[in-house]
Amino acid sequence: MPDLPLTTLLALSLVSLVAGFIDAISGGGGLISLPALMLAGLSPAQALATNKLQALFGKLSSVRYFLKQGLIAPGSLKLPLLLCFGFSALGALAIQLLSSEVLQLWLPWMIVAVALYVLLSPRLGDLDTRQRIPPLLFGLTVVPLLSFYDGFFGPASGSFFAIGFLALLGHNTAKATAHAKLFLLVSNAAALGAFILGGQVAWSVGIAMACGQWIGARYGSQLVHLKGNKLVKPMLLVVSTLLVLKLALLDSGVMPWL
What distance in Å separates the CA atoms of residue 30 and residue 20, rounded to the nearest whole number? Predict the structure, then answer.
């Protein structure tokens, strides 16, 4: 594990605060935190694992807030949450089977693909909220697929979950975002467990970033509840723009991991 100086840890904590704030509103915070971890010197697998650790605290902060607001009823979601846990762990185990060279080559372009989706996706409030499939079918199909993706890679999985709850189950924006955070909390915990077993977590970095995640997610969640979808699209655009600016540095050698 890299031995990072205090200034780098403080910078990563600030990055995680911004990422937690954005992630609580729209998802996609990993598009900021994951490249930052790789820029700090972590290997792709270490960056993915440590990103799960710090993101876990952001999800916990969001879920705690949404539970207090009565937007989540976890008792009725036992089977989907169990499937979420299992498939996320499988995703985290699967990505550890890939070599570091393969991850080094493909991970940045996976981030690009997700960023393009974030940039081009419709605003949540613009989607039709009519229920299209039964909750049981959603839990048996969409939840395992998104959970595996979250364990395997992760960035923007919050957006994918929120869109699923909104467009397929008919939830409003705040309720869809709240339920997305609950599933991501379970998914992050499962993936983190798999990464811990693989010895991939940089604990000092993850704990330093967890503080920023908790604060950013708390206030981002409050804005979701109070402002609804008014902030979602702007935040998605901010996330995408930041990543595009990072990619623009490719030829200059500022981001050698790309």
Answer: 9
CA atoms within 13 A on the CB side of 92: 33
- pLDDT digit string (tens) for 78-107? 999 999 999 999 999 999 999 888 887 787
Show the tokens assigned to 92.
């985290």
Kindly state the DSSP code that residue 249 receives in the 8-state scheme. T
With tokens 């840890």, the residue in question is 9
Selection from 70, 64, 71, 34 nearest residue 162 by Cα: 71
CB 81 within 8 A of CB 237: no
- Let me know: does 27 contact 237? Beta carbons within 8 Å: no
* Packing angle, helices 135-152 and 157-167, rounded to 10: 170
Instruction: Give the 3-state secondary structure of residue 246.
Output: helix
Query: What φ, ψ does residue 140 adopt, rounded to 5°?
Result: -90, -15
Both ends of the chain: CA-CA distance in Å?
A: 20
DSSP tag of 231: G
For residue 14, give the H/E element and its range. helix 6-26
- Secondary element (H or E) of residue 141: helix 135-152
Q: Which residue, chain included where needed, has tokens 């539970």?
A: 67
- pLDDT tens across 117-162, in order? 766 766 665 566 778 999 999 999 999 999 999 999 988 788 889 8
DSSP state of 257: T
